[in-house]
Amino acid sequence: MAGIGLVGFAAPATADSCPSGALCAWYNKNFDGDPGTVYGDNNNLLQYSKFANVGSTYNNGTRCNVALYSGRNMTGSKFTLARGDGININPRGAYADGIASNDWCV
């Protein structure tokens, strides 16, 4: 994972602020603060400040993994985040400019 700019770990209880069914993003690492949330597939997450300036993200989907992309319209580097997992984003990695799009159930 380090090659694409992600740091994976099992999500601690602080990710509980992410609503069921959502992909959540925080400005800070380790799910600190209030999350930004999206549901469904999104071609441009960069319009949402917390995804454009992401420090950590969590998949609280109810049934699927979610693919995260560094480019809009599901382009660029791809990382599949398993349901119930969260990651910190490396500020110097592929997602340094944010999570640009997502695709559920991959």
CATH classification, class level: Mainly Beta
From the spread of the alpha carbons, the general shape counts as: globular
Rounded to the nearest angstrom, the distance between the terminal CA atoms is 18 Å
The largest sheet, given as strand count, sense and whether it forms a barrel, is: 5 strands, antiparallel
CATH superfamily (homologous) name: Crystallins
Rg calc = 12 Å
- Helix amount: under 10%
Count of alpha/pi helices:
1
- As laid out across the biggest beta sheet, the strand order is 1-7-4-2-3
Q: What is the topological layout?
A:
Layout lengths: L5 E4 L13 E4 L9 E3 L10 H4 L3 E4 L6 E6 L3 E7 L4 E4 L11 E4 L2
Antiparallel strand pairs: 1-7, 2-3, 2-4, 4-7, 5-6, 5-8
Characterization of this structure:
- This is Peptidase inhibitor.
- InterPro entries: G_crystallin-like.
- The chain has 106 residues and is mainly beta.
- The chain has one domain (2-91, 98-104): Sandwich (Gamma-B Crystallin, domain 1), CATH 2.60.20.10.
- It is 4% helix and 34% strand.
- It contains one helix and eight strands.
- The protein has one helix at 49-52; strands at residues 6-9, 23-26, 36-38, 56-59, 66-71, 75-81, 86-89, 101-104.
- A five-stranded antiparallel sheet has the order 1-7-4-2-3.
- The relative contact order is 0.28.
- The model is unreliable at 9-13 (pLDDT under 50).
